[in-house]
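Following up on my earlier message about iron/sulfur cluster. Here are the inputs again, as you asked, copied directly from the submission form:
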Amino acid sequence: MQEVRFLGRGGQGAVIAAELLAQAAFLDGKIPQSFPFFGVERRGAPVTAYARVSSEPIEVRGSIATPDAVVVLDRGLLRFAGATDGLRENGWVLVNAPASVQAFAAPAGIRLASVDAARIAVDHHLGSPTLPIVNTAILGALARVTGIVSLDALERAIAAAVPRKPQENRAAARAGFEEVRPLTDPRSRLPLPPPRPRRELPLPEGPLALRSSEEILTASWRSLRPQIDLSRCTRCNFCWKYCPDVAITLDAEGYPKLEEEHCKGCGICAEVCPPKTIAMVAEA
Amino acid sequence: MTVEVLSGNHAQSEAVRLARVQVVSAYPITPQTTVVEGIAEFVASGRFPTQFVKVESEHSALQVCVSASALGARTYTATSSQGLLLMHELLHWAAGMRAPIVMGVVNRAVAPPWALGADHTDTFSQRDTGWIQLYAENNQEVLDMVLEAYRLAEDPAVRLPVMVAEDAFYLSHTVEPVDVPAQEAVDAFLPPRQGHAILRPGEPSRLGSFTSPEDYVLFRHELAAAADRVVPTLGEVEGDFARRFGRSLGGTVVPYRCEGADAVLVTLGTASTPARATVDALRSEGKKVGLLKLRLLRPFPESELRAALRGVGAVGVFDRAYTFGAAGAVATETRAALYGERERPALTSFVGGVGGREVTPSLVRRVFDHLLRGPEEGIVWSDLEPHRELETHG
Ligand code: SF4
Ligand code: SF4
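Thanks, got it. Here's what our run produced:
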């Protein structure tokens, strides 16, 4: 059995990617299963989905602790602990990254590959340039590096199951298959995340209440960040007032200040700023 | 017959279409939503000529089904968690009015706090409403059970509504291969509902209106007698299903490697999958353990369960919910069923997978380790002791 973990953001198509992989594996004559981890279903929020492919009936359900491959649809997610936890010896990490990214720091025993799935998606008019739908391009790349499904089955699954732009999605899968690059250069540019610390469960006494949402760091949802040009700021405070997450506070002189850990990158502040002094720029 | 890769929710939608349900009414709630989306897509594409009634709440959705069912229509609704709780009053009406409605329930944790994961508290807290409750382990069972549920519900000996329950996400949003039978085969197994209209236009009569104590008890007793006929009727329905489709869901309780077992674990729903794999692993290590999968919770299949557990030394019951002040709900039911036995095994109630916690093979292994250490009465909150040996409380 081969097991794949997909990491993406709401709107990128990670759940559909896992399901398409299952459909394609079935067309290859295998027994598939796929499963999304469900949390907040919001655009930009991190999403995890899983797929299993086997030639025997599958006797497990639920999340995958020891994947053979981790597919990262948004490389910003590599900032967070636990993304590649449990990856098997010689497992693959496949990252959506532009060709300019030449290398990742990876421990021995991990194989890395990247594909510019965002550019491929934009080339094929899938999603928008700020939120390209990268799932079919990266599945093509996954088919190539792991051999978990054939490109033919993948294309047929896309043709059967993708209601919008099936031809463009098939072409994106083919391009991903062609363009995927193994990353072997030891110079590191993007470090892999540390493992997630194991949480021992406390057994509390007394009625429980959830803690303040100040502790919920919605920064993980962000793929765009507001950049405020204070030189043109009129201190009207619109951004402060409209931010749905109170992620803009005001300094002593009344200038807006971004709370990095809570800004989810929705862009409302940029939209409402009268002199248009806030620009939404892509996260590094 | 074609094999398709379907989610549990789409297995429900496919079955509803194949059953030629005449009236569908539902209100969306995560994780049930895609059941109804699937049906809505069939209706929109013209593949499924059903009457789809949009409503403002779950309470109204079930009322639509009760009314249409009283007029003789085949009806369906689906819900989950809080939505099922909101239906509670109408659940009693549906059973009391002997409306053979089939409802898909995606088992989801009950708030507070808000949670979306698999948990059986929602359906367990409806055990006294008169509905039949069937629980699926995989998406094939979901599809097959919905088809069987209509035969069972509409059988003149039964005439009771049925819930077909599936675990949130572990089935509702998991896709896997499902054998979808051909329409003609389903039509032969499940002909149109007949002779069932209680209310007929032009023939004035009342249903469910005021009664005296003298009459009320007759209605309740009639309902009780119908519930008693569920197990034999389900046996007949499953026999016919197996003859026609070449596969069987295996009855009300499904034993797996229980021969000569020192310890047997009783499970419901998707916890059965890791439990079966663990039984295989432990048997290959020479440990005598078995699994008893329960498929029917209401009415409770007492004699089947008793027969399957006869001679077993230690029984564990794995519940994905807790009945406050008692134990796991299936554990209390199982304990009551075993009361009439001359030799009663010790019974441990394992509460696990609560609120969507994963039931992994390693968790089930620690459950069996606990059982094999020796028979012990008590309750184990297995989720809370993830890295140690399990301990009994109470
Ligand atoms: S983008 Fe602007 S409005 Fe949106 S969360 Fe960040 S600071 Fe607030
Ligand atoms: S909305 Fe624009 S101008 Fe107004 S305070 Fe914010 S950044 Fe400054």
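One observation from looking it over: Residues 240 and 246 of chain A are 7 Å apart (CA to CA). Hope that helps, and feel free to reply on this thread.
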